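Hey, quick one: can you model this chain's 3D structure?
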Amino acid sequence: MFTCDTGGELNKVAHFYSYESMAHREEVRSAAARNQAWSAYVDIGRKFMVKQESRIMLENQVIYSATGAPGAASFAPPSGGDGPGLYEWRQYQLSPGYGSVPKLLKAFEEGLPDKIAADPEGRLVALAHSDVGILNNVMELWRYPSAAACIRARQAARQVPKWRETIAAVTPGVQTFTTSFMVPCPFSPWQ
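Sure thing. Here's the predicted structure for all 191 residues.
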């Protein structure tokens, strides 16, 4: 669970959940509905809610294989006292149609390893595309020790020829691109 520090809607809370399957999702949600503490939390939270959005995202294992990233379910923030860190949530809204997501993912499969090699501080947490909700949406979630480290990573990535080629290849199919700095809530396991 995160709050938005900057780069988008402020006073927003984002929850990320990982499920093994749709059946597992239903099982967890059913158990939560029976949990009195969760029901009380939801009832209190509704008073403050202006808008709620939900989508189901599918992680891309090919990207994880190419980059060595563990994926969201296996991610653990580094130990060593760099604090809660900062997460950069990058979202791409792609053109309608069946080909835009596969094209972006293929380009990322080829370009992300070089981008990651140029960035010793950042860690790819998740890369996923929407399956339910706003379609043709791709998200990346990165962890950095600080906002300054995120900016250094961006500057380094701009100098990587393969990453520049990747961005040039996918940009024509991107309708919008947003990036937000997210701070993990004090009780988040991703502190």
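One thing worth noting: The first helix runs from residue 22 to 34.
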